[in-house]
Amino acid sequence: xxxxxxxxxxxxxxxxxxxxxxxxxxxxxxxxxxxxxxxxxxxxxxxxxxxxxxxxxxxxxxxxxxxxxxxxxxxxxxxxxxxxxxxxxxxxxxxxxxxxxxxxxxxxxxxxxxxxxxxxxxxxxxxxxxxxxxxxxxxxxxxxxxxxxxxxxxx
Length: 155
What we know:
Elements: E1 5-10, H1 12-16, H2 20-29, E2 33-40, H3 44-50, H4 60-67, E3 72-78, H5 82-90, H6 103-107, E4 116-118, H7 122-132
Antiparallel strand pairs: 1-3, 1-4, 2-3
């Protein structure tokens, strides 16, 4: 059974290139609600823990080095069928193989610097979200149609 939550992270190279705003726009335009967001930097130890499932693989050390090389943006997202829909929105891990219009196709450089992380299962979405966020840092907001509301009257 799929849930309505997933986790994403805007990776250091995309942050350094100034892609936070455009990536967030693509995410919200894709129908996702941001229920948690954090601008932070992983230590080497935190990156090793987060990507521990890959320990022993040939790319592990370079992944840890890359992910601790600069700030990231951690995101808790909500949408029906969140994990599956987000994987479609971001595209294939290799940006050269990602579909046109996907986040990785638009903002990634290489398979290693692929702009964003997206949870690959509901179980991992929960684990990854709780790595970065406490329950009190996650907020459900009822979105409104901005056209219905006036913040200030023009004189």
